[in-house]
Amino acid sequence: MMTVAIRTCAIALATILCISSPAFAGPAEDAAAAFEAEQKGDFPTALRLYRVAALAGNTYAQGNLGTMYHTGKGGAKNFPEALRWYTEAAKTGYADAQFNLGIMNELGEGMKQDFPAAAKWYRLAAEQGYVPAQTALGTIYIAGGAGVTPDRAEAYKWFTLAAAKGDENAKRRLVTVSSRLTPEQKAAGDKAVADFKPKEAAKK
Length: 204
Known about the structure:
This protein is mostly helical. The protein contains eleven helices and no strands. About 65% of the residues lie in helices and about 0% in strands.
């Protein structure tokens, strides 16, 4: 059922271009320098600078630091640290981190597998219009899981929204789920799609 991939939290180009002298570096500048180091493959430097910025409360750095620990970039995988930093970023409403927390809960990485928690985090990101989370949430609702009741109309809603943004997985799954809907379920799903308004993304 699980086909979503870990997403690296992106830093705005404008932030990267604003790197100042190290003597005057702040959390945003450290985060931007970390991102630049990561793009060059200098993972130890990226890990160090992300951590400095994350400890100072920079949301982007917290999310990217979580991803480095999650994937093992710059060292061995460390699920407890990944959870720690994803959670810090997710609490601010950061969709990338919320999505990645959903992955960890769905797969049981560093914790007991928890489908309701995965659905919760996917939903928080999906409601901001975050396409990978919309597809992941729809996928959970197709089959359900421990503590999650299957809901084809809900799956249809999220697949429709993600497919409209060009997500190929959502397009394929939408075809499958559409063929299994009753007229009432499809009507409910179409209304939910029409009523959907993305929530404002968190300000970093």
